[in-house]
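Same chain as my last thread, 789 residues:
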Amino acid sequence: MKNYLFFFCCFFLLAVAAQKRDDLYLYDRFQPVKEENIFNTPNYYNWGGSIIKDKIGKYHLFYSRWKKEYGFLGWLTHSEIAHATAKKPTGPWRYKETVLKGRGEEFWDAITAHNPKIKYFEGKYYLYYISTHLGGKTYTEQDLIETAKTGYSHANWKVLRPNQRTGVVVSNSLNGSWTRQDKPLIEPSGPITTLTVNPAIDRGKDGKYYLIVKGDKPNETRFIRNQAVAMSDNPASGFIIQDKPVIDYLDTEDMSIWYDKNRDRFYGVFHAHNFIGLVTSKNGFDWEKATEYVLKLKEIEKKDGSIIEPDRMERPFVYHENGEPILLMVAVKKGDESYSVFIPIEKKEDPKPNKRQLAWQEAELGVVFHYDLHVFDGKKYGQGNNRIDPVDDYQIFNPTKLDTDQWVKAAKDAGANFAIITATHETGFALFQSDVNPYSVKALKWRDGKGDVVADFVASCRKYGIKPGIYLGIRWNSFMGVHDFKVNGEGEFREQRQKWYNKMVEGMVKEICTNYGELFEIWFDGGADHPKNGAPDVLPIVRKYQPNCLFYHNGQLAEARWGGSESGTVGYPNWSTFPYRATGAGESARRNIAKDNFKLLKHGDKNGQYWVPTMADAPLRGYNGRHEWFWEPGDEAHIFPLENLMEMYYKSVGRNSTLIMGLTPNPDGLLPESDVQRLKEWGDEINRRFLEPIATTSGEGNTIELKLGAPTTINHVIIQEDIQFGERIRKYELEVKVNGKWIVISKGESVGHKRIEKFDNIKVSRIRLKVLASDKKPKVKNFSVYSVE
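reply #2:
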């Protein structure tokens, strides 16, 4: 029995270890910086560095610096490694001493000491750094100054750069003394040539040391860098470079790595052209994009609301304790100043919305305009056929009276705060000017191929104060033979076409994200799948170019979730929290998500660790047996009556969901007048009921009371939590005071962004919200009462 238990435990532990995933999400956890988080030394350029904590809890920073009198390029000729200390890893920091300089003409590290990484391995401190020499050439201090001020064209520069190498000094104490080595730690070979610089090192679970250094890519006339990984049993010697580069298809400059014991994998943070990025590896050799490949854009928010927009932002370093990231350190150059910035990383606690989700939930009501080629063919739309049968003649697209102002004004009249357009749908036809997709409005006779429905739509949104969003259907493309993300065909023929399709999609996403200004939401219908499954890699593109845009969704991330039906309603209770960051879609969802008719999507999970709020959606023309997202002739009788639309509103917005109503312009390019009229009636009715409360209040704690003065007839209550702190209310009651006694008129569970309670008329003088169960102190930003006739 004991042996059986032993083997069971071993199997269980192996199974758990095998399930450890790349689920490190930091993008929304970077906090604004205060002055104490910026470390600047007068008369010096500060650059790069790394942090370590000593045994008594003090923090030590080892960083590069050189005198400003030599100019910024003096890093190659005059850099030294300095030591600063602090009580907190975020600062403020105080310079303590200079610990390492170039040591003279005859040594490999004659000229400088630069780009340090401090580590603690097996009872000793290891300070990794880079340096260079002039190959035995006699030189003076004036020669070095002249080299620094002349820069890249100076003859000495062309000797100093290829002589750069990585080395290490060792000490029993962070206060030294430091023992140098006579030779560099590693010479270039394999995937790098010329030099070995910018060391990044950590120890894996196998006890071996993994060192990443940068060099030039072999057999290249252009200036292209590669990263190489070397391994050793000793942190100070014996490193052997592996033949395979870390990543040779991405710019991963200035990498800094750490081994995450909690996730049983390595992470590497780096800087690229306009962002700080993240890569990961399970074994230290095979590296790939992390789920959050785009970790942070190259700007820094300050506590006072201002933004630092650096000229350069490099040398990223993540300081962590027990695998939990504490801060991101970066080197910043701004004008003639160069300093270190320590960006705090918020501790992961209770789930709460990021700024995009918060804006999306506060918007409450939006619309999506469905428009595609088959609107013009005079036939009934059939989704199954539409996904596999190309439209016979795409020149049928000819909206001669196109008026996106009319579309958007109708949405505005309904009370919508955002609008989305199907830039592409299942035919694959693109409604915008695309340089990468030949199947687009560019190919039309309409407007001589110069029309752009998306551009017109976005301009109309800006005109009417509506936030614009884009819907991209990439899962199906009947024109190009794509079904469920996969291009048809076999063997190499299919593989090459798949690569082309993926590249085209990524190009379209970049066009959408860069050509139309700031977007509110990007919606990949049916999701965009996971790039590991061979799908286009779209998340990094949206993160790079649309940082304020809600991402919905792919196999890596869903910042909102489908509400489980296209009825315009969600279930109750409806929690914004969810057990997964990504949901899948429809039939492709995880098995337990699809279970019981998508119960999990409809209700969420009050104990879920991720914030994934609900979207309720329905087509306006979905009444009385029809369910049409696209215009069809003779469908006016299937426009939802006003009472049905109000019922949707109560069971979506009133249940902590964002409601998106599907609208469809006709072949002329106009929203049918019957639709326009119904939308106006809907918006007017919402305002009639809820624009002016009888009384309102807010507060914190388990009881919030509203005094109405004289007895007043009420029949509606709106409750709103301040969800920037998460969902805290777990169970509540509404009580009213009638004839001097408190009586319960309603009970509920989830509140979230908005809960609308509807009940029979009752005349009261006071009403109160009693929270019976909560997670932390309830924060209610709105408690209002209404009387609706």
